[in-house]
Specification:
The complex is a heterodimer. By secondary structure, chain A is α/β, with parallel strands linked by helices. Chain A has helices spanning about 55-70, 100-105, 105-120, 160-170, 185-200, 230-245, 255-260, 280-290, 310-315, 345-360, 385-400, 405-410, 425-450, 455-460, 465-470, 515-525, 535-540, 550-560, 570-595, 595-615, 625-650, 655-665; strands spanning about 5-10, 25-30, 35-45, 90-95, 120-130, 150-155, 175-185, 210-215, 250, 300, 495, 500-505, 510-515, 530-535, 665, 670. Among the domains of chain A are: about 5-135, no CATH class; about 340-485, no CATH class; about 515-565 and about 630-670, no CATH class; about 570-625. In chain A, strand 12 (about 500-505) and strand 13 (about 510-515) form a beta hairpin. Chain A starts with a strand and ends in a 10-residue tail after the last strand. By secondary structure, chain B is an all-alpha fold. Chain B has one domain. Classes of the chains: A alpha/beta, B mainly alpha.
Chain lengths: ~675, ~260
């Protein structure tokens, strides 16, 4: 059954006649103390804020409400095979300054048209009047706020495409842009501001201003994260800014392939593929803008007919290739480090990786910046494998199709055609040719990457489910010449090679990615028939690679019967700290009486530090924590890491995985005792 | 690419059987199609009353009828499609998609089937043009009218209905199976490479389209009779009756294949 919801926004009253018990009711609020949406603007370059025009304010108000509503109501789980929950019926009550205007049939129809195209949901609005002037939004800088007024607005996400579009405009001397960013999550903040600052330095003549909007859900996690309304919100922010500043252009760019975002497999139906900059959405949104604003404001995608690789060439052509590494395209904004900001498997990451390789910009988009290297790493079952496999399969199809076949076999393309255009056929052909170029570029990248690892690929050493192996196959039995090589090959090998480990066993060689447990396995295989204490193993991870051999003294101390039962903090030291706490308590009362705030602050700081240290060295029931506790943690950490590494190896090389499972023992000390004994080379 | 929601198959016994068939050493598209239809049986039965599927097929019938009229543009306007005679065919298909979208938005309960029906309608139109020997590029609504007029006879309309239901059925099966197909690639003995995965997807598509062959004869008969009785004004109610019957026939065809 379709999910129906009524969302009362910003204190709007419930519309009359809404008594459906099956309807979910939610409140959306960003002003009261219990607000569930964060909504504010931050001007990063200018100081004077102007008052926003009524229609523009209403547009932002409506867009914010739809964005919040979108996240408040679930679209169902990933096993909703019929899309029963994907398409929701959302009824929003929204206070605006001009409810009659927004309720007029033409404007209302255009509003729904744009939203329904972007989201696939059914929308309804009940507009009421907001009389309170204090509720008026104060967001956009007025002309007087700028040292030099901007000439156009660029929607600046901090991704590669928005950077390419901005650089092209700046280098093309098309005036000074105002960059508008939407800050949905904290990790996006630093990269947007950093990039804006760099652009200001590189193009001082046309240094862009930068304004950010913080609009995101707070207090609770969103019930849905697909954010199909984000495009409407982002475009509305840009259009409102442009209208306020009397600028006619808003640049909202994605490369053409991303913009069309055709379903890469048939399991992706309708708006399961986002339509942020889809030509159909932009044309509908522009029609809405035509009705809302008296002065013409138009949102356009300057990269609409370029592939990712062609868009990236803009950076190269304008000596800005190095800026690519400052951008992040990944759809996962949480759980990734600054060093590895890309998951490597979402469609954005896969497309970016292929794009940068096709544009020969690998040096500015390093493999190490991706958590998963889909080309050579085993692709886990689920989203990771589905996306990578579908992406390449779809690109392969595109590369073999004529424009005619594309428009026949991919009927989704019809939605990108504007029937009002005077050049429908030419537009369609240009789109099809771009898709073909994309398909060919992906094929070219696959071939180049395969050539790089041809030995591993040919001998079946790559994981069975990595992209290159899936595309090109490769089994060791296909290569009998390997057995005839003159060079003597050690039958068993466990060797680190950069970020990978080359492992040979039982006549088969594979390459597996590095992880914590690999170092432990390596050490154990190098020192068979010996018990190695877990703390000694753990120290291998913190020592520099060349010194990864635990000292005898270190190991001896940690052997059973060593000093493992001793407390981490000697009793004398503990007593000394407790005595110091008493002294500080006395000193504090003196400082309090004297009203000496500085002294008080210093005392409090020292007390806090001592309490932290005591807490760290105190175990359960107030007893001193011993080295045994530390060893317990080390044991757990090492055992888990070894288990994970064994699983990784088992996935790539089942016989070796079984061998390690049988002959490696974990516990307080770990050992490797193979029967019969085996020699490993490194 | 933008953001994509990637789905999985439900964990019920019947859907697990579909997945297990993908793991068979010798992949059989017909067996996978049958198992999928069985797993989705309850929902597929409800399609007989699906307003968006009925609407899309109704548009197709009315387009065929309109093509026989001397004033094609006026006949199109009667079903809510504004088009100029010299309009490029791709622009016209976009207009049809737009007309259908309004209906789809009013029925969110149709879920993904609304989208799949709309896609099937577009494809039936572009294939009809192709089968009439014209290119999609450079053809106009006039050419479409000529092609549709060619298919507006009783027997030939059956061919267009087959295109529509074949594509709808293929897309429906694809929307189920391709949730898992990429995932089994590299794991299943019959899906070791991308090529094998692609070939299986094509085999499944072909099987679904071939199953719709059964539609051709009786769709033509139904169209001829109803079009004559209604004086070219076939309505949604009549169409709904036919769609329900057609889907039943398709299911029967699948069962027959199994027994064979």
């Amino acid at each position: 059954m379709t999910t129906r919801a009524l969302l009362l926004c910003d204190g709007a009253p419930a519309p009359p006649g809404q008594s459906d018990p099956a309807q979910i009711r939610e409140r959306i609020d960003w002003r009261s103390p219990s607000a569930n949406v964060n909504f504010r603007a931050e001007n990063l370059d200018d100081t004077v804020l102007g008052e926003i025009d009524g229609r523009a304010a209403d547009l932002i108000q409506i867009a914010t409400c739809t964005f919040a509503a979108d996240q408040a109501i679930s679209r169902g789980g990933d096993r909703d095979v019929y899309g029963s929950d994907w398409h929701r019926e959302l009824h929003l009550a929204v206070p605006v300054r001009d409810p009659d205007f927004w309720s007029s049939p033409e404007v209302y129809r255009l509003l729904l048209d744009a939203l329904e195209f972007a989201t696939g949901d059914t929308w309804r609005f009940t507009f009421s009047t907001t009389a309170d002037r204090s509720r008026q939004l104060v967001l956009i800088p007025g002309h007087q706020g700028f040292a030099r007024p901007p000439d156009y607005v660029v929607l600046f996400s901090g991704g590669a495409d928005s950077l390419c579009a901005t650089v092209e405009l700046l280098a093309g001397a098309q005036g000074r842009p105002l960059l508008i960013s939407h800050r949905s999550t904290p990790p996006t903040v630093s990269r947007q501001t950093n990039l804006a600052r760099i652009l200001q330095g590189r193009f001082p003549e046309r240094a862009p201003s930068h304004t950010s909007f913080w609009i995101h859900r707070k207090r609770s996690n969103p019930k849905d994260t697909s954010q199909r309304t984000r495009a409407f919100l982002f475009a509305s922010l840009g259009a409102a800014a442009a209208a306020q500043l009397k600028l006619p252009r808003v640049i909202y760019s994605d490369n053409g392939v991303v913009s069309l975002n055709l379903p890469i497999n048939r399991g992706i139906v309708g708006t399961m593929a986002s339509r942020s900059t889809h030509p159909g959405f932009l044309s509908r949104f522009n029609r809405l803008l035509g009705a809302v604003f008296q002065r013409p404001v138009r949102v356009e995608n300057t990269l609409a007919l370029r592939t990712r690789a062609e868009a990236l060439q803009i950076l190269k052509a304008n000596s800005c290739a190095d800026l690519l590494q400052e951008t992040v395209s990944c759809s996962h904004t949480r759980g990734l480090s600054g060093m590895q900001p890309h998951c490597g498997y979402c469609t954005q990451c896969i497309d970016r990786r292929f794009g940068s390789l096709a544009a020969d910009m690998e040096e500015h988009d390093l493999t190490e910046r991706y958590k998963l290297d889909a080309f050579v790493a085993s692709l886990p079952e689920g989203e990771q494998r589905t996306i990578a496999v579908s992406y390449v399969r779809f690109a392969n199809r595109l590369s073999q199709m004529t424009p005619e076949e594309m428009f026949q076999d991919i009927p989704e393309l019809a939605e990108a055609i504007n029937p009002e255009s005077q050049t429908v056929d030419a537009d369609a052909r240009a789109m099809a040719e771009m898709l073909k170029r994309h398909g060919l570029a992906v094929g070219n990248v696959m071939s180049r990457m395969a050539q790089k690892v041809i030995n591993d690929l040919g001998h079946g050493r790559l994981p069975q489910t990595c992209l290159l192996r899936l595309a090109f196959g490769g089994e060791i039995e296909q290569w009998p010449a390997l057995q005839q090589t003159a060079e003597r090959i050690d039958p068993n090998c466990f060797r680190r090679e950069g970020k990978m480990w080359r492992v040979r066993f039982d006549g088969r060689e594979v390459v597996v990615p590095d992880e914590a447990g690999m170092v432990y396995l390596f050490h154990l295989l190098s020192t068979p028939e010996r018990d190695v204490d877990v703390v000694a193993l753990l120290s291998l991870r913190s020592a520099p690679r060349r010194q990864r051999r635990p000292s005898d003294a270190e190991t001896a101390d940690l052997q059973p019967g060593g000093r493992t039962a001793e407390p981490i903090m000697p009793p004398k030291d503990r007593a000394r700290l407790r005595q110091r706490l008493k002294e500080l308590a006395a000193a504090r009362s003196v400082a309090e009486q004297a009203g000496n705030d500085v002294e008080l602050a210093l005392i409090d700081k020292e007390v806090a530090e001592i309490e932290r240290e005591l807490e760290r060295t105190t175990g359960r029931g107030g007893k001193p924590r011993t080295f045994q506790d530390e060893r317990g943690k080390a044991r757990q950490s090492v055992s888990r890491a070894i288990d994970r590494a064994r699983k990784t190896i088992r996935d790539a090389h089942m016989p070796l995985g079984r061998h390690l499972h049988v002959f490696i023992k974990t516990g307080w000390s770990c050992s490797y005792r193979p029967v019969p004994p085996i020699r490993w080379s490194s | 690419m933008g953001h994509n929601r990637i789905g999985r198959l439900p964990r019920t016994l019947r859907w697990r059987q579909v997945v297990s068939l993908l793991d068979e050493p010798s992949l059989d598209a017909s067996a996978v199609a049958r198992a999928s239809s069985l797993a989705a049986e309850v929902r597929l039965r409800r399609l007989a009353n699906d307003p968006t599927l009925v609407h899309c097929f109704w548009i197709l019938t009315r387009l065929a009828t309109a093509a026989r009229q001397p004033d094609f543009a006026n006949a199109l306007a009667e079903i809510g499609i504004e088009a100029r005679p010299d309009e490029p065919i791709l622009g016209f298909v976009a207009r049809v998609a737009e007309q259908v979208r309004n209906e789809v938005a009013a029925h969110p309960e149709s879920g993904h089937f609304a989208t799949l029906a709309s896609l099937a309608l577009r494809r039936a139109l572009t294939e009809t043009i192709g089968q009439h020997g014209r290119s999609l590029f450079g053809s106009s609504v006039d050419d479409l009218q000529a092609a549709l007029r060619h298919y507006a006879g009783d027997v030939r309309f059956g061919r267009m209905a087959r295109l529509f239901f074949g594509d709808f059925f293929a897309a429906t099966l694809g929307s189920f199976v391709e949730r898992e197909l990429s995932n089994r690639t590299g794991e299943s003995p019959g899906l070791q490479t991308l090529r094998e995965s692609q070939e299986f997807a094509q085999a499944l598509d072909r099987y679904a389209r071939e199953s719709a062959l059964i539609m051709e004869e009786f769709a033509g008969g139904w169209y001829g009779k109803n079009n004559w009785e209604s004086k070219g004004q076939i309505n949604h109610e009549d169409t709904a009756g036919f769609v329900g019957y057609a889907l039943r026939k398709l299911r029967t065809e699948l069962t027959r294949s199994e027994q064979a």
